[in-house]
Amino acid sequence: MDILVTGRHCQISDEFRERVTDKLAAIEKLKDRVIRIEVQVSTSKKPSALSTQAEITLRSKGPVVRAEAFADDKNVAFDLALDKLKAQLRKASDRRKTHRGLRPQVIDLPPVAERQPEPAPAIHKVAGIEVQGDGPLVVREKEFEAVPLTLAQALDEMELVGHTFFLYVDAETGKPSVVYLRKAYDYGVIHLNVN
Length: 195
What we know:
The chain is an alpha+beta fold.
């Protein structure tokens, strides 16, 4: 397992690298098949109480797992992000277990293809408008390869990434679908009928 620690607008000391490496050694117990862990610490130039951000990203043969936290110190921000990451991994592990017939057992997720960003072309269309270079619009477009997933697998990936919604292709119906987090840990699902 490779551990990569980087800093943006801040210096990363050897003591901090050793501390991060020691604390991340426990992650292998919670999630096997971890290939690389990326830790990025960045500080904001704006003075505020929470000016330091720590982001931890787990790259494995399965879905990408990510957690981030803000604090006034990089050690505190890292500890908060690590706690969030461990909670996400425990919750995902708990979802895969059978709880006396209350939930169906979820099998291991198929590996998701590595997502590589493509360089932006000089001229491209956004929402029917042709844009050259940066253009007047501030739009971010992403394109991913989709593997059909069940609802349980989509919920799993949504929680592992740490987002409140997840777009996927339903394995049973083949429809584009979105699962999203509602208040009080309820989930909603939207299916699209494509004509």
